[in-house]
Design a protein that fits this description.
2 copies of one chain form a homodimer. Chain A is an alpha/beta fold. Chain A folds into 2 domains: 152 residues, Alpha/beta knot; 68 residues. Chain A is 45% helix and 11% strand. A 7-stranded parallel β-sheet of chain A has the order 3-2-1-6-4-7-5. In chain A, α1 links the parallel β1 and β2. The radius of gyration of chain A is 20 Å and the shape is elongated. The termini of chain A are far apart. At the A-B interface, α1 and α7 of A face α1 and α7 of B.
Chain lengths: 245, 245
């Protein structure tokens, strides 16, 4: 489970308590506000999983090893770029992913703004808790509790995670997709496909698209190989590349 | 929804927020700690349903009109006298009860001790949230959120509550069961069935049993009629009753 920039130590404590209630051990914290994070960890009775939480500077690093990244939030003010999955439908997706050797992350944004568009570009799906349209926004600790209840208590997962290496149809981990996106971006630049002013926007769209495609590890390896080859060719042919022979 | 003696204003606020998130309008508070209750209601942005909450001196009064009273809690330290229903199975019971014109209350105990044995004797069932045995006890606001998610978001109820009077197989409201229990207790006393030292214990067991039987309104009317008749006979026959003719 990943918390992105939580602001309130009580909410961090509440999220940790819900994780303990539902038997989830691994917490990642992305870019926490330092005093908040210190206060939450030094609270009396702070659970062990808070003390063992892994801190990451950004979401990409936190979910690098994950094959299914599920962001959470409400949809009131934006049109999502990711497929939206109602929470009651999430458990079967997660079970399927785990059964083929994948790793899953559930990501919660900060209390005030939720996940940003940039955060969401690292997510394969956006999970929506069905709430009353007049009061859609949930408290962070309560949203965590509801999601974990759905995933663990309602839909028990197999006890021990599989130890085998991912099979060939397992999804590509997030870090591999980032690597692929980086190579494709280099290709675009080398091919003068993408004007400079559009690069940030293209990078964003590319990240979203690669996740929507649900590439397997093997797909990713092949596509990466292809784009590396293209890049090599482009650089070799381009007079300004410095690799001309 | 009923909160019994909540101690922490933040928890009351969190419970109210979850109710707003999941579209439940009616909150009852039983025997609140006065300063706590004042603080929760005067909090900035206190939702309307907190301002409209109904205060009752005891649980019996709060659930008097209800035909299905579901207590919540963990089972770690006691053997429950009520049937235990795992939360995922609650929605179908509630839907069934509502469809035959009944009224349902979901009851949460105080943060520290949960519902007492006395509180539970007013409940027909005990709802258990399936949590990790190493950390079973949930935060009040989170437990409320999880229960309401299960009852509303996962299992939408029919929009408008039925306006017809209860049908003959509708369950007896709690206050009717209390009336029946009172008459039966009088009969026991009149028949010298229950020694004085046992009366409190018998009263408790009787309350538990009447709820376990799931009496319909019609059952209750008949049994009440029978016991009133018995009482009248006993009083008439007994020399010390003062009603001898």
């Amino acid at each position: 489970m990943v918390l992105v920039s939580p602001r309130n130590p009580l909410n961090i404590g509440a999220a940790a308590r819900a994780m303990a209630n539902f038997g989830l051990p691994h917490l990642h914290i992305v870019a926490p506000f330092a005093p908040t994070w210190r206060e939450a960890r030094s609270a009396v009775g702070a659970p062990e999983l808070l003390l063992n939480a892994v801190e990451s500077p950004n979401l990409a690093e936190a979910v690098a090893g994950c094959t299914l990244v599920a962001g959470t939030g409400t949809l009131t003010h934006r049109k999502p770029e990711q497929p939206v999955v109602p929470l009651p439908a999430l458990a079967s997706l997660v079970a399927q992913e785990l059964s083929r050797g994948g790793r899953v992350a559930l990501v919660f944004g900060s209390e005030k703004h939720g996940l940003t568009r940039e955060d969401l570009s690292h997510c394969h799906i956006l999970v929506e808790i069905p709430t009353d349209p007049r009061q859609p926004s949930m408290n962070l600790g309560q949203a965590v509790a509801v999601c974990l209840y759905e995933l663990t208590a309602r839909s028990p997962q197999p006890e021990a995670p599989r130890q085998e290496p991912p099979t060939s149809d397992a999804a590509a981990p997030s870090a591999r997709l980032d690597l692929l996106a980086g190579v494709i971006e280099e290709v675009m630049r080398a091919a003068a496909y993408s004007p400079h002013s559009m690069q940030a926007a293209n990078r964003h769209d590319l990240r979203v698209m690669l996740r929507r495609l649900a590439l397997s590890a093997q797909d990713t390896r092949r596509i990466l190989g292809l784009f590396r080859r293209i890049l090599w060719r482009l650089n070799r042919l381009s007079p300004g590349s410095g690799v001309s022979t």
